Amino acid sequence: MAEEAVGRTLRDVAIGDEATVRRLVGSGPIKRHIMDMGITKGAVVRVRKVAPLGDPLEVTVRGYELSLRKSEAECVLVD
């Protein structure tokens, strides 16, 4: 990750809870991949399930069910 994540990330959100995306950190292909999935500033993300070892995270964004790796979830700062 190019920038250090400061604050609460998507990885810290409990299963069943929702969070609003504050901003994305990092750059390059990971950030582009996250944005291509529709996870952008202001989007509401609901964590549906987390694999036993924490990778992947299954989330719902804008009505779509998606899977994120831990490294991607750490790039999403939430409120």
TrEMBL record:
SUPFAM superfamilies: C-terminal domain of transcriptional repressors (SSF50037). Residues 8-79 form the Ferrous iron transporter FeoA-like domain. One of its GO terms (molecular function) is transition metal ion binding. Signal peptide: none annotated. It comes from the Bacteria. This is Ferrous iron transport protein A.
